[in-house]
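Course assignment 3, question 2. Fill in each field.
Student: A.L.
Task: Predict the tertiary structure for the chain below.
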Amino acid sequence: MKKSITIITFVILNLFQNLSYAQSPSAIPYQAVARNNSGNLIASQNISLRFSIHDATATGTVVYRETQSVTTNTLGLFSVNIGAGTVVAGTFAGINWASGNKFTQVEMDVTGGSTYVDMGTSQMLSVPYALYAATSGNGAGATGATGTNGTNGTNGTNGTNGTNGTNGVAGATGAAGTNGTNGTNGVAGATGNNGTNGTNGTNGTNGTAGATGATGSFISGTSTGNTVYWNGSAWVENNVLAINPALMNTTVKSSLTITNTNTAADSAYSLRIETPKPVLLPRMTQAQINALTPIEGMTVFNTDAHKVQVYGMITDNAEILNEIYTGTSTSPFGFFNQSFTPPISGQVVAIEVLAENTFGGPGSLNVNGISINVPGNSSFIWYTANLTSPISVSAGITSSFFCNTTFVQLATNSFYPNGSGSGFSGANDLLFRIHIQPTPG
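Answer field:
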C-alpha cells in the first residue's frame, strides 16, 4: 500500500535563513507529514527514508543518494537534513549545482526497514542553488581569524614491513677463543658382539699304536641266533634273549629287531618279558602319527585319543579296523561307498564309522539302512550301526558297505590296503570298524 508525505512549505524559508549568512550550508532541511493512503497520520512511529538527487531530469543520473531513519511525532511530523544521512552513492559536497537542473526523489518505508516505496520526484528550484553561490567567489566577507587546532586524530595502522635488504659483506674472522675445559668422560658403551671363531688348526700326527691287550673270556656261540649272558660268574650260551632287570633302563637309540630261530618247545614267542612292571608302548600325538609312513601292524598309544591304535587289519576272526584319523573328511552331504576284504568268512553284524556334525542343527547318518542321529556341534566320535540284516562275506572276497549323510562329515584316510572308498575326493578310505561273526566250523 502506497503511503504519502505532506511536505511543509517552510523548508524554503528555513533555507533562506541559512543563506542569510555568508557561508554555504552542509545540508538541505526537509520537513514533512507522513500519512497513509486513507489520509490518516502515521504518528509516533519509526520510519526509513531514502533521498536521491537526479541530474538534469526526474529520471536522470543519480549524483547523490542517502538513507535516514527518523521517528514521527504525534502529528505525523518529521524533520531531517538532506546531506546528513548515511551515504549510499556520491558525496553531498561533490554535487555540481551549476551544471543544470536538479531533482529530489523521496522514498519511504513506514516499518523502519529497507523496503522503500517511491513518494515522488520534484525539481529543486532556485533557492538551493545558493549553494553554488557560496563557492562562486562573489560577495565573500573578510577572512575570519584562524581557529584553534583540532585534536590530533588517532594514529593509523602500521604499514607492512618492507622487504629485507641484501646481506652485507661478511666481516673479518675474529681471533680464536681459548679452549674450554674438557668435559667428563661419558659412560662406557655396551660390549660389542663376539667376533667369529678363527679357523681350526691342523690336526697333529697320530701316536704309535699301543700293544694288543690280552684275549678276553667272552665265548663264541655254536649256531645262528645264539646269545651269551653273564650268569654271575661266567659267560654262558643261551638260545633265548634274556634281559636282566637291572639293565631295564638301557636305551636303544635306533631300532631293535628280534629274530627267533629257536626250535625248542618255547619257540612260539620271540620276546618274553618276565617282570612285574607294565610294558610302555610308544606314546605319540595324532600329528606325530600322521607324519609316519604306516606299516601294517604298527602299534602306538595315541595321546590325543587316549587309546592304543593298530594300523591295518586285526584278523582276530572278529573285526577289521581302519581307524587312524589324519585330519581329512568327506563333505557333509552325500552318498559314500567303502569296500573291504574280509580275512574270514562269516557275517558282518556291526559297522562303526567316525563322524562329526559341525552345524547347529541335528544331522542324520545312514549306514547300510541303519539310521543314526548325530547331534549338532559335535566333534568326531565313533557311531555304531548294528545291522538288522547282516552282510554275508567270504574270506579274501571284496565286499562293501555304504553311508548316506546329511549335515554329517565322515573321517577319512588313505591307509587301508585291501579296499577303497568312493563318492568323495582326497583320501581313499573311510575310517571304519567292521565286526564279523565267523561262520561256524
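Instructor remarks: The first strand starts at residue 4 and ends at 7. The longest helix spans residues 10-19.
Grade: pending
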